[in-house]
Design goal:
Layout (H helix, E strand, L loop, with lengths): L9 E5 L4 H12 L3 E6 L6 H9 L4 E5 L5 H14 L5 E4 L14 H29 L3 E6 L12 H21 L4 E8 L5 H8 L5 H7 L8 H12 L10 E4 L10
Parallel strand pairs: 1-2, 1-4, 2-3, 4-5, 5-6, 6-7
Helix pairs in contact: 1-8, 3-4, 4-5
Bound molecules: NADPH dihydro-nicotinamide-adenine-dinucleotide phosphate.
NADPH dihydro-nicotinamide-adenine-dinucleotide phosphate binds next to helix 1 and helix 6.
Amino acid sequence: MTAKTLNGKIALVTGASRGIGKGIAIALANAGAQVACIATKAENAAEVVAMIQAEGGVAIALGCKVENGSAVTATFAEVEKELGAVDILVNNAGISQPQPLLKMTEENWNAHMDINAKSVFLCSQAAIRQMKAAGNGGCVINIGSIVGQNAIPQTLSYCTSKAAVEHMTRVMAVECAKYKVRVNCIAPGYIRTEMIEQLAADGKLAAEAIEKRTPQRRMGSVDDIAAAVLFVASPGAGFMTGATLNIDGGWTAYGYL
Ligand code: NDP
């Protein structure tokens, strides 16, 4: 059984309907947090909320397109009204739609920068305003990617949006330390989720080759990332801010053939 280290905390997870965000929402609830689960539509997050409630936890589902400023403002106001001021924000919502540079559309570029990067600014601003007003400090965790540091062909917009997330983490961390708010980035390697399954099905990702190139010879699991989130959100990580934690089975460290 998970220790209830986050009892009394209010957490908000974007992209909580499936994959990594779903795993993070369940892990935070198991650790005692009350969790606002955000997806593009509330009904998409209904299943994860039901799973948390079935285990005796507290969770609510809300629909919000995280790249839309007024929707983000309304969603954070609703969460504050329903649960209280946010203590832990996990910026996890994201898309990956690879296109070769010479065929890349402006829409593809804008979608990645808006959903993956601008949303981190919008949601963090909304959460940190609540954290500052409540005066209890807080924790923002941005889900970046190892492709923010490693160049992967055909993914200029995705890689660039994730590099932005990593650097936004550092700027927000140094600016908000005075409010006792910590801001960190978790950069996953390849994690088996619908996003990866879809890319593999579309022939845009070679799953076996990725496993072979990874020193641990496997893709990561949602639980690998959720465990890292629990650590970063815990009091034990109190001196950690502005940092990026790569959880990638050794992918980034590997520099051989
Ligand atoms: P999935 O595609 O499985 O899930 C994406 C989630 O984001 C869904 O909950 C989806 O909600 C939500 N979402 C998408 N667009 C929006 C939007 N405009 N507004 C609000 N929510 C939105 O992705 P993963 O779980 O694989 O990835 C989660 C995060 O981890 C992403 O940021 C991704 O870039 C990152 N990551 C993933 C890796 C991997 O290997 N899987 C590796 C490195 C990083 P809905 O159900 O409503 O569509």
